[in-house]
Design goal:
The chain has 308 residues and is of the alpha/beta class. The chain has a single domain, classed as Rossmann fold (3-Layer(aba) Sandwich). The chain is built from 15 helices and eight strands. A four-stranded parallel sheet has the order 4-3-5-6, with helices on both faces. A two-stranded antiparallel sheet has the order 1-2. It is globular and about 50 Å long. Its EC number is 2.8.2.-.
Length: 308
């Protein structure tokens, strides 16, 4: 770890009214992202933090490698699918060959201009926001480049107000999905959909990427993208990150991988308040999310995005 990285652990960058952790983001890197030169062969994974980013990086890796596990087991996910807004991205891309796999947490309005006229494929992964906020809270507790989240109640309030890193979840998910028509090649998929039917989700992504898989390739991809396999893969689970940056004694980056786990953290009052804010902020959206599970089966239907 460089002195530069250590010096920026406590830095917060503000860009276009949104705050970002300065450990990985600079004004220069954020400007680089908003002016990014997309290529038609690019695949861009877009997520709000803690919404299935790592999972989709693994899915696209395994689909594009047609079930071959070598890249998954030898190359860290941040190197094979760099975040375009993080300072190291240009150097990674200079050393890369072939079609590029990219990642971003940026809201649509910051990338709209860069994507205009591009045929790059965009995959947007969304997740039940109650599970997002719980996962995000626990990540703040172990990631030393993120602010102290305070109590869960305090963090939940910040999340609902959109004053957390990367801004408002509501603005992020609505911004990308409501502008899906402005993107030539756009795939919307949910974390819950992947959890319920990983094999089907792999097939959905392979069709979108026009990269059909044979049965044995699909089986290999499904095994590699399973939560247990990923949680033990050091190229995926962030255990390669030094303790000074990510304190693994305070939790796991890949914590549970479940859906509906928010019920173990939210109080009834917090859940009710969240529902009211959600209803207000998402009144103009057709998106539906899974809120609960019964045993191991999903008891709420996942509805497709009607505008895509």
């Amino acid at each position: 770890m460089t002195q530069r990285e250590m010096a920026r652990l406590d830095v917060t960058e503000t860009f276009q009214g949104i705050i970002f952790p300065g450990h990985l983001h600079t004004q220069e890197s954020l400007r680089y992202a908003t002016n990014f030169k997309f290529q038609d062969t690019d695949t861009l994974i877009v997520t709000y933090p803690k919404s299935g980013t790592t999972w989709m990086q693994e899915v696209v890796t395994m689909v594009s490698c047609r079930g071959d596990t070598v890249k998954s087991q030898t190359q860290p996910n941040w190197a094979r699918a760099p975040w375009i807004e993080q300072y190291y991205c240009p150097d990674v891309l200079k050393a890369s060959q072939g079609p590029r796999l990219l990642t971003t947490h940026l809201p649509y309005e910051l990338l709209a201009s860069a994507l205009q006229g591009s045929k790059a494929k965009v995959i947007y992964v969304a997740r039940n926001p109650k599970d997002v906020v719980v996962s995000y809270y626990y990540f703040h507790k172990m990631a030393k480049f993120l602010k102290d989240p305070g109590t869960f109640s305090e963090f939940l309030s910040d999340f609902l107000e959109g004053t957390v890193y990367y801004g408002s979840w509501f603005d992020h998910v609505k911004g990308w999905t409501s502008n899906a028509r402005n993107i030539d090649n756009f795939l919307y998929i949910t974390y819950e959909e992947m959890w319920e039917d990983l094999r089907g989700s792999l097939m959905k992504v392979s069709r979108f990427l026009q990269c059909s898989l044979l049965e044995d390739e699909l089986t290999s991809a499904q095994k590699t993208c399973g939560f247990n396999t990923m949680s033990q893969n050091c190229m995926v689970n962030y255990t390669l990150i030094p303790q000074e940056i990510m304190d693994h004694s305070k939790g796991k980056f890949m914590r549970k991988g479940q859906i509906g786990d928010w019920v173990n953290t939210f109080s009834q009052e917090q859940s009710h308040n969240f529902d009211e804010v959600y209803a207000s902020k998402m009144a103009d959206s057709m998106l539906k999310f899974v809120w609960e599970t019964k045993k191991s089966s999903i008891d709420t239907e996942i509805l497709p995005l009607s505008t895509v």
